Amino acid sequence: MKSAQRTAALLAGAVAVVAAPVVAMKALSDPADPRVLVGAAPPATLLPGDVRDASGRMLAGAVWTGLVAYDPASGAPVNAAAESVTSPDRRVWTVRLRQGGRFHDGTPVTSRSFTGAWTAVLSEGWHGASLFTDVARVKGAKAHGKDVAGLKVKDDRTFEVTLDRPFNGFPSLLGDPAFLPMPDGVLRSRDWSSYARLPIGNGPLRVRAHDGRRIVLERLSGGRSIVVKAMPDARQYAAVEAGDLDIATAVPPNRHESMDSDFRGRHLAVPGRALTYLAFPAWEARLSSPSLRHAISMAIDRSAVTEGALGHQYSPANSFVPPGIIPGHREGQCRHCVHDSAAAISALKDANGLSGPVPLWYQSNSGDDAWVKAVADQLRKELGLDTRPNPVPDLPAALNTHKVNGPFVVHSEAPYPAPVAALAPLQNAVPGLDDYTTDLISEAERAPTPSEGVIPARLAETALLRDMPAIPLWSAHAHLVWSERLRGVTANAFTGLNLPHLTLKN
C-alpha cells in the first residue's frame, strides 16, 4: 500500500461501509450457522473497570451501554444511558439516567449501578482508577479507597459527581469503560472473577459463552450472533482470505503493502489516540536549546522507522495531538517533524553543536528496542551525534533522581476526545514545561465548553512546537480487513471496532 494511500485512509476518518456482492465462503456459507466471525487478540479481562487493551474496549462497547457514546462524525459525546449530564460550574455534575434501563439479567440500571461500580474500580485498584483520581479528579477519589466523597446518589435515576476543580471534559470522559455500570448483585457479592468470565451488561449484545478461545455475543434485538475468536495477529489476515473469519482486527507487517490488492475497498486504517514522544530532561543544560531540539526532530526520518522497525503499525506524527482525536484536531502543525537533513544540520550549527555521548533513555522490556536503535542510528548518520540506546529497568525512578542525561521516551494516550486531553498528560510526563504552556492547558480544561477550550489548547500546542520540550514521533493506528459478505464496518480511536453495527449481506 503506497504511503499516499495510507495517509488518505487515515485522514478519511474511521468509518467505512461495505457494499460489494455476496460470495460463498468456506466454513461460513452454511445458512444454519449465520454468525459474524471476528478475529482479535484475547482481552486481558472483561471487567469493565479493569479494561486495558483494544480487545477489551471493543467488547465493552458491545456488552455495555455507557452514560455517553461518541458521535462517529464529530467525535463529541452524545448521551446514551444518560438522559442528561449537566453542571452549572463544570465542577459539580448531575447525571440523570434514561428511564427503563435494564441489565441483561432483567435487573434495573440505577444510579447505584454506576456509583457502586466506580467505587469498586477505586477500591480494587483496577486499571481505570487513574481516570477518577488523575483525570476527572473526583473529590475524595483515591486508589484502594472505599468511600468517595464526590459521589452522591440523589434517587434511582439521579446522582451527583463533585470534582476537585472545574473540568469541561467530564462528559467526554464518561465514554471510557472505567465508567460503565455493574448489577447490584455483583456489587454486593464482589465475585469479580465469576463476573469477568460471563459478564452481565446493559448493552445491545449479551455474552452467551466465553471459554478463552472464543466469546459468543447474542443480539438482544435478534439477528446474527457475533463470535469473537481469540487469534494471534499474524493469523487473522490469512483467515479472512481463507473464509474462516469475516473481519480481522490486525494486519501483519508483511501483508501491509498488499492490503489494497487483497482487500480492495475492504480495509481500513483507524487513527489512534496515543502518541510516542522523545522528551528532554529540563536539568540537562546542553539539551535546552530549541534549535538543537528542532535539529534532532528534523533528523529523524519518521516514515522510515514506521515502515521499518515499527512494521507499518504506526503513522508519523505531524502535531502534538494524535490523529484519532476528531474534535478540534489540526493536521500538519509540526513543520519540524518533517525529515530534512539540510535543515537539521543548519539548526544544529545554530545551536553551536552537541558533543559527548547522547544516550536515548527508555524503559527496558517495553518493546521499544528496535525503533530506539533505528532513531539512534539516524541521529549518528544525519548529525554525527554519539547516540546509543540506553534501556533502564525503572525509567520513572531515573527521571525522579535526575539521572537521565539524554532524550527519553514518553508514551502518552489521550483519555477522551479533545486536544487538551492529549496535552494535559505531558505536564507530568515531560519535565520543565513553562508556566505559559501549563496555564493554557489549565484554561482549556476549565473553559465553559469543550469547544471554547480548543483555542487555548491550540495555543499551548503552538508553544510546545516552538520550544519542543518533547518531539512528537508517531501514533499507533489499528488495521481492519474484512470479507465481501460483511457490511457495517465502523470504528474509532476510543471504542475500536463497533461490533453491534456488523451485519452480513442477505
TrEMBL record:
Domain Solute-binding protein family: 77-401
SUPFAM superfamilies: Periplasmic binding protein-like II
Pfam families registered for this protein in UniProt: SBP_bac_5 (PF00496)
Signal peptide extent: 1-19
Alphabetical UniProt keywords: Signal
Keyword Ribonucleoprotein included in the entry's annotation: no
PANTHER family: ABC TRANSPORTER SUBSTRATE-BINDING PROTEIN, PERIPLASMIC BINDING COMPONENT OF ABC TRANSPORTER
This protein's name: ABC transporter substrate-binding protein
Organism this protein belongs to: Actinomadura yumaensis
Phylogenetic lineage: Bacteria, Bacillati, Actinomycetota, Actinomycetes, Streptosporangiales
